[in-house]
Amino acid sequence: MLYKYTVTGRVVRYIQRGQLTQTIQNDNTGRGLYRLPNYITENNNGDVVVSDSNAVVVTERGGRHRFSYTGHQSGSGLRPRGICTDALSHILVCDLITLTVQMLNKDGQFLSFLLRESEEFGYPHSLSYDVNTHRLWVGSGDNNKVCVYRYITRQDALTDEHRPRPDGDDLSISTPAVECRHLGYRQI
Fold first, then answer.
1. What is the tens place of the pLDDT at every residue in 37-60?
2. From CA 52, how far away is CA 34, in angstroms rounded?
3. The whole model's pTM is what?
4. H-run or E-run covering 136
């Protein structure tokens, strides 16, 4: 006899008063969309974007499955963690396999790597996008640092387009657009 442990996840939406309004669990064929959802965000177009155990799963606001992104190259795999979206509806996700932040367009097409693991920073694990300054805050998974990245300008956000830098490198740890800070902490 063999016991097979299966895991399914779901996304549940509530209104402010705590009343359940929506559950997203299956695709249109009845198959489960999620295994182990980690992080969640909502894109400007209303899509629900979830960092699952081995994919980024995106559904429309109403719950219809749009796409799942499983890595930059076919067969490369993905172990997503921190996830967010920016003013241009890009999806930004930390990947524990490649130790990078990957940028996708709103339809799940890979656009670029924004950050790779470095000796100075470690590996990216958590993300937050500041809509006021158009900066991406990236938390390290191994050395208590937060880096702030500038990869789109205010003008890009206003015109809904992103112009790559002339050197072709959207971002690397050595560009002046990066500011890392060690966050000290004390034990209590």
1. 999 999 999 999 999 999 999 999
2. 6
3. 0.79
4. strand 135-140
